[in-house]
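One example copied in:
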Amino acid sequence: MSDTKTIAFLVANEGVERVELVDPWNAVEDAGFEPRLISLKEGEVRTFEHLDASDTFPVDEVVAQTSPADYDALVLPGGVANPDALRQDEAAVGFVRDFMASGKPVAAICHAPWTLIEADVVKGRSLTSWPSLKTDLHNAGAEWTDERVVLDGNLITSRKPDDLPAFISALLEAVNHGVDSAAATDPEHAGAAPRP
């Protein structure tokens, strides 16, 4: 049995922002972890560069057939269409809800917090996102802030592709040393106190 940590990347089969999938994926691999691509159905994931279709990547697991217990962290890349599809899928929403409840690191960037809203896990939390989600997050009971990365308990959030270096750094710190360590390494951008 391997001691390698496994990181779940949950995306819809179409509409994920390419750089928000590929850059964290590569960083996870470079750190010696095993990334796994989870989606709504078997086959491939079509990424986009803004509104233009880009590369495809093979799906490793179907979300309805896997469990948060199989992974050490969860990454939710953005793109507008991606989280919009995920939040309409009961298995994806349940997976995100259960992952948040597990206390393991959950990292969401750009429009990905739409799925967190649907999973009803943002109330009382501090986070960031693409600016157009600010009202949605406030309406769901979250405190939105315009920072490159916000850490609140096991939740790591960032706004956009320009924030990827800080997002990836916080993710890797949380996977390597725990979510409390990630918050301690970037206290200027940490949200609320770590949650039990």
In short: Residues 164-177 form the longest helix (14 residues). The chain has one domain: 6-185.
